[in-house]
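RETRY 2/3 - previous attempt timed out on the joint model. Re-submitting the same 659-residue input unchanged.
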Amino acid sequence: MKVLRVDMTDKRIRVEDVPQEYAWLGGRGLTSIMINNEVPPNCDPLGPENKLIFAPGILTGTTLINTSRISIGAKSPMTGGIKESNVGGALPAALSRHGIKAIIVEGQPSVGELFLLEIDSTGQAKLISADAHKGMRTYAFTKKLFHTHGDKNGVLCIGPAGELLMACASIQSTDVDNRPCRAAGRGGLGAVMGSKGIKALIVNMLGKKAEQPEDPATFKTAAKVFASAVKKHPNSGQELPTLGTAALVAPINGAGAFPSYNATKGVLNGWEKISGERLAEIIKKRGGKTTHMGCSQCIIHCSNEYVDQKGKYVTASLEYETIWSMGGMPGITDLDTIARLDFLCDDIGVDTMSIGVAIGVAMDAGYKKFGDGLAAIEMLEEIAKGSELGKVIGNGPVHVGKYFNHQRVPVVKGQSIAAYDPRAVQGMAVTYATSPMGADHTAGFVVGENLSVLGGTMDPFSRKGQVEVSRKAQIESASFDCTGLCQFARTAATDIPEAGEALITLINARLGTQLNSEDYVALGLRVLRAEREFNRKAGFTNKDDRLPKMFYGEPLPPHNKTVLVTDDDMDSVFDF
Amino acid sequence: MGITVKVRVKLFGLLPGRFPGYNSKQGLEIELAERAKVKDLLARLELSQLRMVVVTVDGLALKGDSELKNGSDVYVYNSIAGG
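RETRY 2/3 succeeded.
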């Protein structure tokens, strides 16, 4: 394996050996530890000192199912701290099969210069002028790229928002059908890519077979066990392929934990119109796809294809977090409007979650009425134009709050919460407040532990035990994010003992190591320590590990609870 | 059976498929013994094996040992995972 170092100041690409320190790392572990080692913590996130790092997971590029994922890391222009956002699609597996463990993009080109970074079929990297593609939206841009470079490529790219350096800019990834509909959305990494003058990373998928593990026979056996468990588990084997993540709309509303109308209520009036059940019904009736393979080597197929009344493609995949951010937060209960908003976010290149929350804050401030779908679409179009309002929305909820002088802004470290209100799921209060990433549900997902019947004994309204459950989930997530496996395969690894054992075996067979389950936990701890260290050096203190006042002072209907987790609780999360 | 608890159960996600003829508007009417708990209801519905199933009544997520009240509308959902 090798590391590519791309200097955008002098346009030089160097091929480096993988330092021993990084040999066992991949994904989030690699991006976060490299950033902590190489990026000055107080640098301008959009300046030459910041680095944008692409790193496939440890198991990416092998024959194992559901491993086409890549972590992208940098200092975030949204949080001012360390950031890792991971995404699937076609590119991650292809990049790893070229033997590339990481791409480090550093320096900065002259203002106005824009490039494609291409890895060709022989694994050679080169920079090509992208002047002809300036300002292009992602669907038209990738269509053009596949026309000129061939359709056997995977692409990570930015849209107008990334070129305009907006804090909500995403990096879009093409799916197996060559559509830029999957996103490394969180934290504004699209703006960092724009600041480096990179419009797209394009990786050829031809001519390379799966990476051979150090112990192929053991790997093959364990891979079969793991795949079988993913198929067998009711969530990854049946629920996600049938209803996708949108199945969560009903239970989270049912539990009063669906942040609605800018998180002033825990139930959206009319949520049944945007539920997973309703979504599947509409898609089926119109001839779309309720299940779809979004990422290479995926056997779960949680994705879908939403079509209009004439059966024409609108977007893929319409997922729970987007249905919440574009539905719950702005109070919109029309799936056609939500699907249009999802498409526009992908096309302009912005995070659906942060933008939906930004729109919700603007509506709460009185700029438009809750439920006004056309106004939401107009706000998104302003982002692409780069207008004054577009910059406000495109830079996220904090900017919207300042612009409208509105105090109710549901963010931590500048990044919006996700689709689980921390007042109704107190464990998520801990994760949102203390994750080095800012409010991030994937950093320590403890909704099941709080709300399920048999999976736990926690009271979702009590602070008791929430620190412990969030800490455990954050460590496990940090470990798992190194593997390159999809989070939806993780449930099987957690619930089915032989799958959990197979995961450790797979890592060892891939790397030629003798790691045990304790070493796996230690990996997560190492990652979290590096991320915390970077943030501390960047000026973060315990006071940044807090939720905004609204969650402590404004009771959430229907339960009328507030966050009860104390500051001392928050400060004890990283006592390890 | 002596004194009993009757609840109306509404199913979400893939759960309706387990009950042939299930009507989503009417739900299921289930009669259980007095002081029956959520876990008793799940056992009756043969859903006990679903570790992460969610049950709510009046907007409250209930645990297995929560007692059911006569006349309640009980909502049962598939597992909470992903997001």
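The longest helix of chain A spans residues 517-537. Closing ticket.
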